[in-house]
């Protein structure tokens, strides 16, 4: 299951208590203090990992606690520290305050770490308090409580290419053609209810991550349909493949659909001109598709060099499109 937003309360471990203890040996009536310090409580660290696809692990965990430090012992023995809890999250995870939405950290690089909660410091045993004038201190301190923090984890996918378009235009089928991904495909609106990821390998054996974003509709930027839930996943893509249905089976022209998509991106705060994009005219094998494509080219002549006519079903035009995608990242 793809989970991209969760609220979690993290509790770092409490420090162990210091203890009062005395050295007691035969013929040594005043052996002095030997109470050890308590161990430090375990901290909680979030670590970005490119192999973690979503925040699913956190979904049913409203509270996550680290191990407490152990109490000190006699003979000046320090208590064991609580284990640090390292939790892996997907690259692109935002750590935010759930109420104010203040951003604490943006975990976007593989291996990047963020200490979300620091473990409590252990208390001091009576050995710590000995002085030349107080050689038998009868005092020890308790360990400190660990930090407690409630946060919202929100995932914004980091992908090289994002497949965007209206529902049912063939984005998932296209993804399965150019990568080894096998997303669920069906002939109805909103087949894709979560982003799907695939990898395209170029001639230099470099991986290009491609994300199939759930369908956008008119009014998505105002949170209609799946709206804002998935528009945010487009933000971090380096390039876009705008997939249009050349058959125009819904009765809406290609120019109208392209204009709607542009307006939704701009309303959400994204400018297509600020990143590379290609226009994929899918289902070019369907009746009247060529006529619709020619009309679109006449309406947007400046975009002709960005247009690629394909059929994800018959594989027509796929090699040329794959070459164009890899060329976007060849510099």
Topology:
Elements: E1 5-11, E2 44-49, E3 63-65, E4 85-90, E5 93-96, E6 103-107, E7 113-117, E8 148-155, E9 161-164, H1 171-178, E10 196-201, E11 207-212, H2 228-231, E12 239-245, H3 254-268, E13 277-282, H4 289-299, E14 307-309, H5 318-328
Parallel strand pairs: 1-3, 2-4, 9-11, 9-12, 12-13, 13-14
Antiparallel strand pairs: 1-8, 2-7, 5-6, 5-8, 10-11
What can you tell me about this protein's structure?
By secondary structure, the chain is of the alpha/beta class. Helix content is 15%, strand content 23%. It has 5 helices and 14 strands. The longest helix is centred in the C-terminal third of the chain and has 15 residues. The two termini are 35 Å apart.
- Low-confidence spans: pLDDT under 50, at least 5 residues? 183-193, 217-228
Radius of gyration: 29 Å
Shape: rod-shaped
The number of distinct helices, counting runs of at least 4 residues, comes to 5
- Alpha-carbon distance between the termini? 35 Å
Helix and strand pattern? EEEEEEEEEHEEHEHEHEH
Order the strands across the largest sheet as they lie in space.
Answer: 10-11-9-12-13-14
Task: Bin the helical content.
Answer: 10-25%
State mean pLDDT (0 to 100 scale).
Answer: 85
Indicate the proportion of strand residues. 15-25%
Largest sheet: 6 strands, mixed
Structural class of the secondary elements?
alpha/beta
For the secondary structure, the number of strands is: 14
């Amino acid at each position: 299951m793809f989970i991209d937003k969760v609220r979690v309360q993290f509790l770092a471990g409490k420090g162990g208590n210091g203890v009062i203890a005395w050295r007691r040996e035969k013929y040594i009536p005043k052996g002095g203090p030997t109470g050890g310090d308590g161990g430090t409580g375990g901290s909680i660290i979030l670590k970005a990992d490119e192999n973690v696809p979503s925040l699913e692990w956190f979904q049913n965990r409203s509270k996550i606690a680290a191990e407490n430090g152990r109490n000190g012992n006699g003979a000046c023995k320090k208590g064991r520290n609580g284990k640090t809890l390292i939790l892996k999250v997907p690259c692109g995870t935002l750590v935010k305050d759930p109420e104010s939405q203040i951003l604490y950290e943006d975990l976007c690089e593989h291996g990047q770490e963020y200490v979300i909660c620091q473990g409590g410091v252990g208390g001091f045993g009576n050995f710590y308090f000995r002085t030349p004038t107080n050689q038998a201190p009868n005092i020890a301190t308790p360990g400190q409580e660990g930090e407690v923090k409630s946060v919202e984890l929100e995932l914004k996918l980091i992908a090289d290419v994002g497949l965007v378009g209206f529902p049912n235009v063939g984005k998932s089928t296209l993804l399965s053609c150019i990568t080894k991904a096998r997303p669920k495909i069906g002939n109805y609106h909103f087949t894709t209810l979560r982003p799907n990821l695939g990898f395209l390998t170029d001639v230099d054996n470099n991986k290009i991550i491609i994300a199939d974003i759930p369908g956008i509709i008119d009014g998505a930027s105002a949170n209609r349909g799946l709206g804002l839930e998935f528009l945010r996943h487009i933000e971090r893509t380096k390039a876009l493949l705008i997939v249009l249905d050349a058959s125009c089976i819904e009765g809406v022209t290609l120019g109208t659909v392209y204009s709607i998509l542009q307006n939704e991106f701009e309303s959400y705060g994204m400018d297509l001109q600020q990143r590379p994009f290609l226009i994929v005219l899918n289902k070019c094998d369907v009746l009247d598709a060529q006529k619709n494509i020619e009309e679109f080219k006449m309406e947007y002549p400046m975009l002709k060099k960005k247009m690629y006519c394909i059929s994800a079903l018959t594989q027509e035009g796929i090699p040329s499109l794959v070459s164009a995608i890899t060329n976007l990242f060849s510099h």
